[in-house]
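Q: Here's a chain of 167 amino acids. Please give me its 3D structure as tokens.
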Amino acid sequence: MDKPVEKCAFINLLLLHLDHCPRLVHVLPLSMWDKYTLQRLGTIEIVHCGDVREVFPLSPELQEQDKILEFLNLRRIHLHELPKLQRICGRRMFMPKLETIKLRGCWSLRRLPAVGRNTKPPKVDCEKEWWDNLEWDGLEKGHDPSLYEPSHSLYNKAQLPRGTVLR
């Protein structure tokens, strides 16, 4: 039985910002009763939370359903220095209003959310090495690199001359 919208926790959450939470593993677990919980969320910012593995882990009931989770108002994602982060939310996500993604040091994250095919491509500011290792579902599912606008020229690893101590 669905809960009424007005009784759901975090229903008015617009911004999720976490900074320096070194022991945090999961941010906000979601269950099948929470489908209205994050309907207004517009921005996710998580910085220097080294143990975070998943932002919104799913309950076993939702994991079994293998549904695409929709974040209809999410526009911005900023994730910085989250080396253990594997997923934002489940395996497949749809964010039709996504505008920008900024990622640094999230080397275990392998998937971006699916986006609308008839929308402006979201800008993805990330390391080129990370972008090159992403997994995609294909254009027909709204999950293809051609639907994004990657930018990583400022953050490529510096090319050091041969024979330097740092190489």
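Q: Can you summarize the key feature?
A: DSSP finds two helices and eight strands in the chain.
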